[in-house]
């Protein structure tokens, strides 16, 4: 059996020491999103722009030294503070790639589940 990008789904779950409302809002605030989206050691996110409404765009520039990678997407669902879904566009993404974040209270913090559907292996 050969897997294609249509078959691939990635789910990552984390607990964050902040209430769901605060974590949800951080994903829509450009200043906070720059810190939220740190792809790896030595990398930065020098630019983040958001249009936090269904149909609005977000755009990011992630950098590793002088190398930059642009990412972005269109908000599809904004259900504060429970669910956020958006298309995912990057130099490596495929058409129809989507990300869904689900936020649930867990004690004084939040349980976050990220599901990314349709991406190259």
What is the count of distinct domains?
1
Mean pLDDT: 92
Question: How big is the Rg?
Answer: 15 Å
How would you classify the helix and strand content by structural class? mainly beta
Superfamily at the CATH H level? START domain
What CATH first level would be assigned?
A: Alpha Beta
Q: N-to-C SSE series?
A: EHHEEEEEE
Name the poorly predicted regions.
none
Produce the secondary structure layout.
Elements: E1 9-16, H1 20-28, H2 30-36, E2 44-50, E3 57-64, E4 67-79, E5 83-87, E6 98-106, E7 109-117
Antiparallel strand pairs: 1-7, 2-3, 3-4, 4-5, 5-6, 6-7
Question: What's the short story on this structure?
Answer:
This is Activator of Hsp90 ATPase homologue 1/2-like C-terminal domain-containing protein. Belongs to the AHA1 family. This protein is mainly beta and 121 residues long.
Describe this structure in words.
This is Activator of Hsp90 ATPase homologue 1/2-like C-terminal domain-containing protein. The protein has about 120 residues and is mostly beta strands. The protein has one domain: START domain (Alpha-D-Glucose-1,6-Bisphosphate, Chain A, domain 4, 2-Layer Sandwich). It is about 15% helix and about 50% strand. A 7-stranded antiparallel β-sheet has the order 1-7-6-5-4-3-2. About 10% of the residues are buried.
Any key phrases for this structure?
121 residues, single chain, mainly beta, ASHA1/2-like_C, 7-stranded antiparallel sheet, 2 helices, Activator of Hsp90 ATPase homologue 1/2-like C-terminal domain-containing protein, Alpha-D-Glucose-1,6-Bisphosphate, Chain A, domain 4
């Amino acid at each position: 059996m050969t897997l294609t990008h249509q078959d691939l789904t990635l789910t990552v779950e984390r607990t964050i020491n902040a209430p769901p409302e605060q974590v949800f809002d951080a994903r829509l605030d450009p200043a906070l999103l720059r810190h939220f989206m740190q792809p790896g050691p030595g990398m930065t996110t020098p630019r983040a722009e958001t249009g936090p409404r269904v149909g609005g765009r977000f755009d990011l520039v992630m950098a590793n030294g002088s190398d930059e990678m642009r990412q972005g997407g269109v908000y599809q669902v904004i259900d504060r503070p429970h669910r956020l879904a958006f298309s995912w566009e990057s130099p490596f993404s495929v058409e129809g790639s989507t990300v869904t974040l689900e936020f649930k209270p867990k004690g004084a913090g939040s349980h976050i589940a990220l599901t990314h559907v349709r991406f190259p292996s």
